[in-house]
Amino acid sequence: MSAPDETTSSAFDDVFSANAEYVANFSLNGLEPIARRGLALVTCMDSRIEPLDMLGMKPGDARILRNAGARVTDDTLRTLVLAVYLLGVDRVLVLPHTRCKMASVDNDDVVHDIIEEQYGVDTRSLEFHTDNNQLGALRHDLERIRHHPLLPKGLPVTGAIYDVDTGRVDPTGL
Ligand SMILES: [Zn+2]
User: Fold this and answer.
1) Under a CB-based contact definition with an 8 Å cutoff, are residues 156 and 150 in contact?
2) How many angstroms separate the CA atoms of 79 and 57, rounded?
3) Is the pTM here over 0.85, yes or no?
4) E-strand spans in the chain?
5) Up-side HSE of residue 95: CA atoms within 13 Å toward CB?
6) Cα(137) to centroid of ligand 1, in Å?
7) Cα–ligand 1 centroid distance for 114 (angstroms)
8) What whole-number distance in Å separates Cα of residue 65 and Cα of residue 51?
9) Residue-wise pLDDT tens digits, 94-113
């Protein structure tokens, strides 16, 4: 592997130097990797989301799985299987959010076109799992978890929507 160039390394100066302060005040030493409150949260990568705080959780309480759109992908399922059997997870909350870009367009083609037009990159080899029927996509994703052959029958699984303007987590009853 070649060494990163100077631009690459300086792009991270702020985060690495901020860490020094974090280390000075570090208080999570000795925390177990088991999710103390048994929650696996599947949510979006959106930077407006504070997954622990919004649910009254602290580090060590929950497993957080994040991706674009809070979609239940094969990788999400793989991670949930590990989380349930090895990491103390005994309930799963899937939590997409309001004003999510991934739920603002009809289908992946729109996103592929935008990226191609603006950057000249053809991303059609990827599936982005965009869907503007957010509740329909959530229902589908919850079913994927509920019917996964390797996950325990009766594992509590539910969905809610996080409102990025109010902080409210709205259960969908799905
Ligand atoms: Zn989002």
Assistant:
1) no
2) 20
3) yes
4) 39-44, 62-67, 91-95, 157-162, 169-171
5) 27
6) 13
7) 17
8) 10
9) 999 999 999 998 889 999 99
